[in-house]
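WARN retry 2 of 3 for item q-0093 after timeout on previous attempt; input resubmitted unchanged.
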Amino acid sequence: MRNPPSEQFDVLSNALRIFPEEIYRLNYFFHEVHDPEEGISNIEIACVNVFNQLYGMMCTLKDNGHINSIYEHDAITTILCIRHVLQHKGGRIKNNLRDSLNKQISKKVALIDYSASDSDIFCINASWFQTGIQESNNAHRLSAINSYLRLERIQIDLEKLAIPLTDSYFCIFPLITEAVRQLCINYSSHFSPAGFDSDVYYSHFLEIDPISTDDYLIKIVT
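OK item q-0093 returned
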């Protein structure tokens, strides 16, 4: 019997595999092809695809009567609201790679990572998604998102470093990781692996430790 959540989780798992693969290929576009813009574009597209497939996963669970709302956990809500900004404002996801390539980045910026994950290659601009969510119909969710991200504490630390939010970037990997972990921990009874990628990721996200947003690191790049 067909199980739409299982099928959608397999699609999400495909996206989760491709995203880091595109990041690993960035060096090739910089040094072999000499076309860094193409490499960065591929990463941006792969990242947005993860956002879209997580949204599709939550919608499938809701459509099949397994959940009442797609916004039930802060980690998932954060990703869905960033996705909403892209869907309704248009343009690209504002990130450190493209800003650096276009020389639109300050001489000193902050990269904010969680759980010391060492995943600061691709980071999204804090002010961009804050403003985008505030100006969307998800504005009422922003307070909970900021609390989840520990933004108030982070801003105090940034002020001590004399770095504004406009020059700060959140590393997206740990945020995606915790969102998918929450998906699997809370809803895995409603879906199962339906392919090679989903077989790998299903067990992986059920076994990994939580990403604690209390455990953050601010890396200064000059």
